[in-house]
Structure formats: C-alpha cells, structure tokens
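Sequence design from tokenized structure. All designs in this work follow the same two-part layout: the structure record, then the generated sequence. An example of the structure record is given first.
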C-alpha cells in the first residue's frame, strides 16, 4: 500500500438484523450477492442470518457500500469514521481518490465501488468541494467492475440534487470522474472533532484491535453466521441510516422540492389505505426499521424518518393497502 489508508485486512462485520431478506422471503434485494466478486455472501431464510463465507471472502469490502440498509459494516470503525478519514485528506477542498489498480498518485481505495451515494453526500458536507476519482482497468481486477456501481450512485446524486436549491452537485466523466459540491453547507470545526480518525490514530486503533484478536476474520464472520433475527423486535437504526440523517440535517434548509424515491437513499414515505386493511399487523411486525405503528383506533401510522424505503411492508400486505410514494417531502425535523 503506497497511498492513504487501506482497510483490506479488516474483516467485515455482518448485522443480520438490518438485512431486509430476514423479514420477508420475497424482499427481493440481492445487492450484496450481485456486487461480491467472490461469491462469499450467504443470505439465509427469513428469521435466520446473513453471513459471509471466510473461505471465499477476498476482503474487497464492496458489500459495505452496496447494502443500502447497513447490514455490512467495517470492523473496527464506523462508516462515518471511515469517511472522515477520507475527508481529512482533502487539500483546499479537493480530494483525489483512486482504486488499487490505478497508476495515478492519489489516495487509494480497494475499489471505487466503496463509495455510495450517501457517503458521497457526506463528503460534501465535510468540506470536500471537488472529488476526483481515478480508476484502473476493471477487467484486470479481481474485484470486478466497480465503475458500474459508481455510475448508479452518481445517478442517485443527480436525482437528489434536483430537490436542492442554493447548493448543487455536478458530475463529469472524462479520463476520470469528477464530482463538484457547490455552495454546500459544512460541518463546524467542533462537530468535525467529535469523530476524528487520523492516519496515525487509525493504525493505533488497528494495532490495539489486532492485539486483542478482534480482527480474526474467521472468528468474526463465523460468529455472525450463528446470529438469528428475532422478527418483531424493536430495531435500532443502522450506521447507513445514521450517516444519512447526519448528512441531511445539514441539507434541510436547501431541500425545496420533494425528494424522488431512490433505492440508494435510505428514505421513503408509505401511503396507507385503510379501506381493505384487516388489521393483521403483519406490516408492523415485519418492518425492519420500526417505521410503522398503530394508533389506539387501529389506524396504521407511518414514520418516514425511520423508513429506509425497503418495501417489505408492501410485499407483506396481501390486501394492497400500502404503496410507496415516488415523490415525498422530507420532514423538517430529525429525532
């Protein structure tokens, strides 16, 4: 490793409770399987577990970025801390990143597909004004084509930018990809110091964790494979959801138009029709993010701040009482 911080030796932590496939057999999400170049991801039946086979995992960490619901996490630091370590490398608002196969002299990631739409937005509020991404030849990389995933994230950024006024996001692609964040709000210096992982601090953390045995891939991943999901339990917010809320809290004054529903953005609004509802409560029980509750009068209430837009409730309702809004206002409050 010549440039920047590499997390390739850090095993991925799996949190099955955030995997929507654990709540409904027809959830239909296979993003982690599709992006894994080694076929290491294993999705169990509802109520069982999501896992990674340590015999196949090659440590690319693309699953962390691909899972929009936060079921995969970096071991040893949060997604916010990882992004903070990238933002700290920016010079005068300009950050240069490259993949491991690129010959360009920039801070290297395992793969550019480690960057997702929410993470890119977060870099914008962390003071990055121009992000330049250099990639090598994906055809020669064991991690596969990461640029296809990145293009989907840029499309989501463009859609999100359409709801903003007073700040903007633009992206271009020539010999490299450049993303510009114009007039973006910036976290204060005090907030930046709350989570501070410098290069020296990161390797100090790495050494402590390694000494305690916490970085044993087999131990971590095999332990995860034995975790089961108790459907109906109250669920905490995933790291991805927390990251999104931290980011959007800065952008609230600039959101002047309804947000378009986008699977890469963990937010959604569900429309409920009481007409055919038989009050079975299945949607409430199966919701992975506790976004659905019921009033004393038996009316289903949807809390969009908790919603990730996964659609499990819609597939669970046999009477078709729930539909996701393709455009929705973001609540001007955050819990």
């Amino acid at each position: 490793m010549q440039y920047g911080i590499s997390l390739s030796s850090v095993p991925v932590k799996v949190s099955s409770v955030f995997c929507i496939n654990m709540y409904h057999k027809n959830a239909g999400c296979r993003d982690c399987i599709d992006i894994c170049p080694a076929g290491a991801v294993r999705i169990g039946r509802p109520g069982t577990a999501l896992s990674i086979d340590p015999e196949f995992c090659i440590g690319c960490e693309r699953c962390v970025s691909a899972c929009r619901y936060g079921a995969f996490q970096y071991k040893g630091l949060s997604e916010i801390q990882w992004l903070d370590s990238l933002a700290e490398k920016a010079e005068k608002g300009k950050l240069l990143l490259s993949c491991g196969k690129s010959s360009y002299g920039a801070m290297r990631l395992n793969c550019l597909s480690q960057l997702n739409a929410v993470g890119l937005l977060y870099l914008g509020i962390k003071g990055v004004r121009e992000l330049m991404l250099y990639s090598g030849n994906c055809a020669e990389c064991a991690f596969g084509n990461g640029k296809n995933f990145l293009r989907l994230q840029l499309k989501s950024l463009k859609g999100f930018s359409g709801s903003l006024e007073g700040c903007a996001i633009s992206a271009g692609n020539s010999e490299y990809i450049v993303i510009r964040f114009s007039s973006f709000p910036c976290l204060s210096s005090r907030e930046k110091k709350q989570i501070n992982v410098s290069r020296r601090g990161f390797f100090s953390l790495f050494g402590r964790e390694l000494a305690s045995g916490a970085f044993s891939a087999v131990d971590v991943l095999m332990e995860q494979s034995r975790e089961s999901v108790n459907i109906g339990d109250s669920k905490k917010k995933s790291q991805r959801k927390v990251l999104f809320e931290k980011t959007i809290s800065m952008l609230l004054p600039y959101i002047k138009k309804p947000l378009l529903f986008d699977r890469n953005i963990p937010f959604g609004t569900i429309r409920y029709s009481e007409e055919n509802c038989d009050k079975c409560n299945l949607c409430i029980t199966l919701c992975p993010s506790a976004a659905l509750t019921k009033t004393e009068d038996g009316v289903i209430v949807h809390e969009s701040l908790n919603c990730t837009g996964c659609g499990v409730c819609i597939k669970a309702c046999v009477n078709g009482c729930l539909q996701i809004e393709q455009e929705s206002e973001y609540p001007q409050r955050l819990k």
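Residues 1-10, 192-226 have pLDDT under 50 and may be disordered. We note this feature because it recurs in several other targets discussed in the main text.
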